[in-house]
Write a structure and sequence with these properties.
Strand 4, helix 4 and strand 5 form a beta-alpha-beta unit. Strands 1, 2, 13, 14, 15, 16, 17, 18, 19 and 20 form a ten-stranded mixed beta sheet that branches. The N terminus is likely disordered. The longest helix is centred in the middle third of the chain and has 18 residues. The protein has 13 helices and 22 strands. 26% of the residues lie in helices and 26% in strands. With 468 residues, it is an alpha/beta fold. It is globular and about 85 Å long. Belongs to the Orn/Lys/Arg decarboxylase class-II family.
């Protein structure tokens, strides 16, 4: 079980400490065995600055579904972003931070009626649609809503295609839906699209913006006064990635098709903000060596199977649902270690629980750690404790400059941060084996013989180094 009263605040790092050194310190604490995350709040802040500098006209509305961590939402709320919510639970997560409902777009084109009622009750008026039935629901439940028509424009390359589920055809369907909205007296205020999560074709944004212009023009003939363009998501956020090409295409397309500054332009970035902020550390708890045939010579080759304490039912669900490619990085490489073809497996009893199929790794031993970068997007929100394996704890850190920037920005305050002996503070809440409790020490244990105490042992905590 876990030590109670965990300290979930942001730990402020001194000038000689960074996120990797904190990860190393936790590993070497001698008491940590479960998988865990390090979240660098500074990385999220830097991403926000990059987004605003790259596309100054576009107001980001963070996609809550990507990572709904309270710390992430608080940080982005403090930075002034809006939020893209897909359910009443996500709406509540944002509203409890003190965010004004006007900063939320309910960007789910097919909403349960109870969720529409909740949006109406909480003042979240901006929402999307792409079908007739949604308009009839809005007419009956929330006629004062401000609707945004979502069109389909798919990137040829994307981690997750969304057009197969959402988005009306901009030519054959959108005009009919706008005609219906006008006849029902529903106020449609703009156009949205989503080219696909993790877009790999920047040019698709120009096609989508051009198509949106046509719909703006048609809506004007019906008497609508469109004032919103929602560029959706699709912005890469992994280490070493860049949104410069996408930003350049978007900026030029806005100049060409939407030069009027009265049109409010928003976007729904998710992975861009959080992917690289999270690093996952996993412990190798079991090893199996097998012989496999060389695909060329047919000769047997040594293949090592490493079993770690997180898998596809936990953080690595991103392999199944987000089509992510993960790279295992040994935290420590032993001198002279030989490299072998290796696979990495999760802890459950499911044979499909494979994290990495075939990768060259140095020979490691039980107790060694593997690090996985770029694990902040579409991981923790979907993770489950299947087979009884816990969801990894997150240790949140920030450097002193980030602390100075955020500590007085609502909803954050100085109470959200821990300053001082950061490494000792981070050890609060480290995992201990299931079934153990931590007694108050020192305690005295008597050794008896024949009813008489012949010896006493005094137990107390002592500070030790790494057990490796």
């Amino acid at each position: 079980m876990k030590i109670t009263k965990l300290d979930e605040r942001v730990h402020v790092l001194d000038s000689n400490t960074d996120a990797l050194s904190i990860l190393q310190d936790i590993v070497e604490s001698g008491v940590q065995e479960e998988a865990f995350y390090i979240c660098d709040v500074g990385d999220i802040v830097r991403k926000h600055k990059i987004f605003k500098a790259a596309m100054p006209r576009v107001e980001p509305h963070y996609a809550v579904k990507c990572n709904d961590s309270h710390t992430v939402l608080e940080t982005l709320a403090a930075l002034g972003t809006g939020f893209d919510c897909a359910s009443k639970t996500e709406i509540n997560k944002v509203l409890t931070l003190g965010v004004n409902p006007s900063r939320i777009i309910f960007a789910n084109p097919a909403k349960p009626m109870s969720h529409i009622r909740h949006a109406a009750a909480t003042g979240v008026r901006l929402m999307t649609f792409d079908n007739e039935s949604e308009l009839f629901k809005i007419k009956d439940i929330f006629p004062d809503a401000k609707m945004v028509i979502r069109i389909r424009c798919d990137a040829t390359i994307a981690q997750c295609q969304l057009g197969m589920k959402f988005g009306c055809d901009p030519v054959s369907e959108a005009p009919q839906l706008l005609d219906l909205a006008r006849s029902l007296g529903i106020d449609v205020v703009g156009v949205s699209f989503h080219v696909g999560s993790g877009c790999g074709e920047p040019a698709v944004f120009r096609r989508a913006i051009a198509a949106s212009r046509d719909i703006f023009d048609y809506a004007e003939t019906l008497g609508f006064n469109f004032n919103l363009l929602d560029l959706g998501g699709g912005y890469p956020g992994g280490t070493g990635s860049s949104i410069d090409k996408i930003a350049d295409i978007i900026n030029r397309a806005l100049e060409d098709y939407f030069p009027d500054p009265a049109v409010n332009v928003i976007a729904e970035p998710g992975r861009f903000y959080v992917a690289s902020a999270y690093t996952l550390a996993c412990n190798i708890h079991s090893i199996r060596t097998v012989n496999v045939s060389d695909p060329v010579t047919g000769n047997p080759n040594k293949h090592i199977m490493y079993y770690i304490n997180d898998g596809v039912y936990g953080s690595f669900n991103c392999l199944l649902y987000d089509h992510q490619h993960v790279v295992p990085i040994p935290l420590k490489i032993n001198a002279g270690a030989k490299y072998y073809r290796s696979s990495v497996w999760g802890p459950t009893c499911d044979g499909l629980d494979q994290v990495v199929e075939n990768h060259m790794l140095p020979e490691m031993k039980i107790g060694d750690w593997l690090i996985f970068e770029d694990m902040g997007a579409y991981t923790l929100p979907v993770a489950s404790p299947f087979n009884g394996f816990p969801i990894p704890k997150v240790h949140v850190v920030a450097d002193q400059n980030i602390w100075m920037l955020l500590k007085d920005m609502f909803p954050l305050s100085e109470n959200h941060f821990v300053i001082g002996n950061t490494k000792a503070n981070l050890r609060v809440g480290l995992d201990t084996p299931d079934g153990w409790t931590m007694p108050s020490l020192p305690i005295t244990i008597p050794i008896c013989n024949g009813g008489k105490i012949i010896e006493e042992h005094i137990l107390d905590y002592v500070q030790i180094g790494s057990l490796n």
